[in-house]
Structure formats: C-alpha cells, structure tokens
Amino acid sequence: MKLPISSHVAIPEDEIEITAIRAQGAGGQNVNKLSSAIHLRFNIRASSLPDFYKERLLALRDSRITKDGEIVLKAQRYRTQEGNREDALARLQALIRSAAVVQKARKPTRPTAASKVRRLEGKTRRSRVKDLRRKDMAEE
After folding, report:
1. 35 CB burial (10 A radius; 0-12, 13-18, 19+)
2. How many helices (H) does the chain have, and how many strands (E)?
3. What is the DSSP string of 108-126?
4. Rounded distance, CA 64 to CA 70, Å?
C-alpha cells in the first residue's frame, strides 16, 4: 500500500512509522485502557520522495518538522484507532502537497496617472483644512 501524493509520486507505507498511543484528555474509563491515538513519524531525508519535495519540506518553518528532518504528527481526533490512523495519513499527505505548491511571483504594479492626481488633490485638500485651523491664518 502506498500513500499517493501526486499522480507520479507516492510514499510506500514502510517509510511511515505509525505507533498507537494513549489519547489525552477526558474520555472516561475507556481512555485509560485503549491506545486509540496515533503517533506518526516520517523521515524526509531517508524517504523515497523526489529531491524537489525533500528540499521544499526541509525549508518549511513548521513545528511538526524536527531539526533532524522528521515529520511528527499526533492524531487523536477520533475515538477509534483506525479513524486516527486515516486522519494522520491525510494530514501527512496534505503537508507534503502544500510544500509542493509553488507561489506565483508577484509582478509589481505602478500607480496610474489618475490615481496619482487623486492622491495629490487629497493631500492639497487636507493641507488647506489644516491651514485654516492655524491661529495665525484664521486672524488674517
């Protein structure tokens, strides 16, 4: 079984380390008996991901990525282990896909001649109002 990232890229499940742990928080007696939360670890550097993905992921400023280049996710949203496992894998998939999105370069625009004129007229109008408030100008 592989986790699909794009039409050409997929991660083999043996590269993803999944451990069942006890969930935190309220839950009654069951929470003390069952390990329904999932702890997922994925080593970016040791993975079979293309270099493009690896570089983009390692460059991210994300608290879920350790200094050693390992993604650590904890899933405990659902009451079942399987639900949390699917959630953790979906979040890993979303994180890797988000790193692959290339931002479109911003092209700087210049103000139009009309907007420059409007700006200057507004400044002149404001200046006139402030001049009228001055005592020495009001006495004239």
Report:
1. middle
2. 5, 5
3. P----HHHHHHHHHHHHHH
4. 8
User: Would the pTM count as exceeding 0.85?
Assistant: no
Element (H, E) at 2: strand 2-4
Higher pLDDT, 84 or 138: 84
The model's pLDDT over 8-40, given as tens digits with 9 standing for 90+, comes to 777 777 777 777 777 777 666 666 667 778 888
CB 17 within 8 A of CB 42: yes
- Maximum Cα–Cα distance for the chain, whole Å? 88
Q: Looking at domain 2-100, which of 1.20.81.30, 3.30.160.20, 3.30.420.40, 3.20.20.380 is its CATH number? A: 3.30.160.20
Residue type, 56: R
Residue 64 or 86, more confident: 86
d(CA 21, CA 39): 7
The helix (H) or strand (E) run that includes residue 41 is: strand 37-43
Backbone angles phi, psi at 83, to 5 degrees: -60, -40
Tell me the domain boundaries of the chain.
2-100, 110-140
